[in-house]
Structures are given as structure tokens and as C-alpha cells.
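Hello again,

I reread your note about wanting to compare the complex against the isolated chains. To keep things tidy I'm splitting this into two emails, and this first one only covers the full assembly. Below are the input lines as submitted, including protein chains and any nucleic acid or small-molecule components. They are followed by the predicted structure of everything together. The single-chain runs will come separately.
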Amino acid sequence: MLLNYQRKLITQLSIKKYRIQNRLFVAEGKKVVNELINSDWPFEILLSSEENFHPKAELLNLEEMERITHFKNPSPVLGVFVLPESQKIIAETTTIAVDNISDPGNLGTIIRLCDWFGLSELICSKTTVDCYNPKVIQASMGSIARVRCHYIKDLGASLTALKKPVYGATTQGDSIYKAKLPKEASYVFGSESHGISESLLSHLTGQLSIPQFREGGNSAESLNVANASAIFLSELFRSS
Amino acid sequence: MLLNYQRKLITQLSIKKYRIQNRLFVAEGKKVVNELINSDWPFEILLSSEENFHPKAELLNLEEMERITHFKNPSPVLGVFVLPESQKIIAETTTIAVDNISDPGNLGTIIRLCDWFGLSELICSKTTVDCYNPKVIQASMGSIARVRCHYIKDLGASLTALKKPVYGATTQGDSIYKAKLPKEASYVFGSESHGISESLLSHLTGQLSIPQFREGGNSAESLNVANASAIFLSELFRSS
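Full-complex prediction:
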């Protein structure tokens, strides 16, 4: 049986304010919860509608899971995990940064992409959706366990302080297929609708873009930001 | 004023059965609706909460838009468009096919990617989410006006009939960075959770994969299918 205060807590954790107040966040789905547990991420509550999921998991029926899920459909597993303390940027050779990303699915898949390409941190502007939002956690498919998101107030100054070139993905930049993409550099991706913010543009060493391949007439104005990041990361690491 | 039968119709069009019965689908959002109108896509109803959107648009207040939207938040523009007749596959040099994609956002962004890379058709298995689903339309960001989706019962046989090699994106295939990727070929992407279906695997000329870059220990098991398609398309066209 889930206690009333627990049910209330889990529901509240869909909101950032309560995640910060309680220093907790919710992860749903077997894969994500398993990845967090396997990486020794501390948890407070573990619930499952399936027996034998984990020795510490409390058994709940699906109806109860339906009452607490942050999604349309409940998953058989839900965990309440401890929000980590903020850490210093370790400054890997290649740094990926996002500016003002608002869609949780986009941020989650960018975290997953960073993981795939072997990166362990992602720099986010303070205006970017919170990485402990349940939808980000779900879209990251467990990669949140390996990619630390740092939220930074002044993205431009922080990236400049890393003392390596800062490239921005824009629609007017040099073709990524022709420009030299140094491994030791930062690459910034801007918001879905407005691109990289004005104040950040002045901090860029250069602008890069994925060329359009449709000839003549109308065509797509832009790519989805997660897809654009995927292409940039592939182009950066393909010759490793 | 929206008439009752129109309101009912628009609401029903969130369901595929009613889209087929009425030969109509709904598009929401200024950009998507504009792109469809600019490509001379025939429409039945055009609604806007903003004056001067289009001479044929009926003015509706936001509350009324809220009652008919297929999304959480209404957009200022909604159009009811005519479902096109099915057409023959034109068989471009490069063919992209999707097998069993269930997430509307993924299908929509794959349509947008095809548009970006200059392709005009996408072959979908019958088990793939309907491209006239409102969420697919939205995620395609208007690219549905330039990329025709063909729904095929036997994807394997149809791709084989195109008489060019058929490559599948799998987790065990040859690295796309090392293999030769012929322009004249079909490339198939499988479902988010199960990959390419068993019956289709036997029709493949070869399997290709995006190598993992994280060394040692745990890492992401797979990439989001739209991100994987983005990387494949970039790799295919980068040397054009």
C-alpha cells in the first residue's frame, strides 16, 4: 500500500519547484529505473506492479500505478530518486551545450546522443527545460545515469572560460561537411523556435550549419534540434 | 461560429477510421497550415483566432479553438485538409523506408528529415503510425506537403521489387562510417523497441549500424530512431 503522503509527493514531483524542495525526482519505466539502480543512483521509493522486479520494490497494482504516473499510461515500474548535488564542469575535450531548449523530448534525446558518443556532460542554459522533468528522464532512456547536465546562468561566459573555440549551430553557418570541426571545442545548439540567443551569438568563434539538400522551390526551414545535434555529433566523431 | 457538425467532425478526425471515412485530416499551427496552403493542398475548413490569417479563414475565438484542438494547447490556426488519393511509388534513387514506427513524433521528424535531404517519398509499413495523425502532421512541420508517405503491406517484397540493394539499420550491422553506402539503394529503419521485423530481415542485402563511441562499462543501448535516421541520411548525402 502506498501511503497518502507518498502519493502526494510523487504527484508533486512533476513540478520543478517540488523536485528542488524535496531533492527528489521521479523515473518511470523498467529500462530507465534499472539503469539508474545499476549505476548506484540512490533512491527513496521503488514501486512495481510486477513481482520480483527488485528486492526493495514495493508491489502495487496497476490501478494504483495509474493514480501516480506522470504519463498517460502507467509503466510497471516507478522510482523516486535523489536529486544529485550540483558538480563542477569537468570540461571534456568536446563540450556540447544547449541554449533554451524547451521540449523535454528533445533534451532527453540529446542526453541519449551525448551518451552514445561517449560524452559525460551536457551544458544547459538556465532557460533550458529541467533534466529531471519526468519526460526528459523518459526520453533519455537511462542515459541520464551517465550524462551529467550542468545548468549555467551565463552560457556564453562559461563556454568562453573553457578556453577552446565555441561553435554555434545556425542556419547561416559554414557547412559542417566542408568546415574543419575540431574535437577540442564547444558546440552549442539553440532553441527549437529561435535558435541561439542573441547574447550568446557574440561569444561564438564561428557558426556552422547542416546544408539543405532539396534543390529549388520550398523545403524544410530547419531540422529538429535533436536531429541536428545527432548529425553534428556524428560528423564530429565519425573519423575517431 | 463553428457549426456543431463541424466541431464533431474535427474532433473525430483525431481517429484514423474517421479520417479515412471522411477523406479529411486536421493540421494545426500556423507554419504547417501555411505550408499546406502554399503547396495548393485542398482544404475544407480553415479556422483562425487571428484576423487576416487567410481570406478564407473563419475567425474563431481562442476558447472555441480550445474545444477543438487535438493538443493540450490550441494553436491560433487549424485547417481541415483533404486526404490525398494513394499514388504509385516514384522510386527515387535513394529510398527511405520505416517499419513499424509507432511514435508520431518520430515519424513526423523522419518526414522532416527526408524533406531536408531532398527526398520526396517515404515508404512505411502498414504497421507504422498514420502520417495524417495530428501529431505526425505537427512534428513534420509542414514537410508532409513535400514528402509523400506510401503505406505498404509487404515492405520486404515492395523494396525488393525496386531492384536495388536494401540495407537495414540494426545494432549489429557494419559501421556506416566504414561501409560503402550506395546512393542507389533503400535504407530501412525499424521500430523503436523491436527494430526491423523478423520477416523483413530476410529481404535485406546488408545490415548497417552507427557505432557506439563510449568505451568500457555501460552505455546507451540504442539511439532514438529519428536520430539514427538523421545520422544515416547525413552520412549518405554528405559527399553529394
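For quick reference: The two ends of chain A are 52 Å apart (CA to CA).

B.
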